[in-house]
């Protein structure tokens, strides 16, 4: 068995055991974060049958995934990095999910481009849950305004996404994001990475963004 498949199966088992102990029945999906990894690292997991992959740069995704998605139409590609408005038209073409909607300007650009391409993606609003000046995401105080605007644009917002502050207790931020998600009545939630995915799963995350724990350290 390929090393990445073993690691993936171990992660799945650890999540299942953790949630069973908490009497939680809904298992989250794993986004295998393939950014910076060559396709030779990713192919074993594709051949194994895993469908959800994450990239943070549009051009890298286009170069890496265009042919693979034609050959494997069930694959879902997730944009998990900051999306610049001048890259939206390329992102709409290759991605199925965007996790980083964080401004009125970006929302409008996505809406316009979806109409042009006759595509409708699943979208998450990224919340700057720790109010960090250097980090992307909409401020909590502006979240409802952005959500209402996205509704006016007929965007398919399915949940919130967050990246908690580094070197702090993540559970507080996962709990806050989960509560905001419930208040807005969203069905999905994008939280958790390699270092904290079990805690995110306990706080109702439905999409876990896991890269290095599957594919190894990035060089």
Question: Keyphrases for this structure?
Answer:
single chain; 219 residues; alpha/beta; TIM Barrel; eight-stranded parallel sheet; 9 helices; 8 strands; 45% helix; globular
If you had to describe this structure to a student in words, what would you say it looks like?
- With 219 residues, the chain is of the alpha/beta class.
- Helices cover 45% and strands 17% of the residues.
- It contains 9 helices and 8 strands.
- The chain has an 8-stranded parallel β-sheet with strand order 7-6-5-4-3-2-1-8.
- Strand 5 (122-127), helix 6 (143-152) and strand 6 (157-162) form a beta-alpha-beta unit.
- Helix 4 (88-94) crosses helix 5.
- The longest helix has 19 residues, at 3-21.
- The two termini are 23 Å apart.
- The mean pLDDT is 95.
């Amino acid at each position: 068995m390929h090393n990445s498949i073993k690691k993936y199966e171990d992660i799945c088992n650890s999540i299942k055991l953790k949630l069973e102990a908490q009497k939680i029945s809904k298992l989250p999906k794993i986004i295998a974060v393939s950014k910076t990894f060559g396709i030779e690292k990713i192919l074993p997991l594709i051949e194994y049958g895993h469908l959800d992959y994450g990239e943070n740069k549009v051009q890298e995704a286009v170069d890496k995934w265009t042919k693979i998605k034609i050959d494997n139409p069930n694959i879902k590609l997730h944009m998990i990095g900051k999306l610049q408005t001048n890259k939206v038209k390329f992102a709409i073409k290759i991605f199925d999910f965007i996790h980083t909607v964080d401004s009125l300007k970006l929302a409008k650009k996505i809406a316009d481009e979806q109409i042009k391409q006759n595509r409708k993606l699943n979208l998450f609003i990224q919340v700057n849950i720790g109010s960090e000046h250097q980090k992307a995401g909409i401020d909590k105080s502006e979240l409802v305004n952005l959500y209402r605007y996205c509704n006016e644009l007929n965007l398919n917002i399915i949940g919130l996404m967050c990246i908690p502050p580094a070197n702090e207790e993540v559970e507080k931020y996962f709990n806050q994001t989960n509560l905001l998600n419930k208040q807005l009545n969203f069905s999905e939630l994008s939280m958790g990475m390699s270092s904290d995915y079990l805690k995110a799963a306990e706080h109702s995350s439905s999409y876990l963004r896991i890269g290095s724990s599957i594919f190894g350290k990035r060089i």
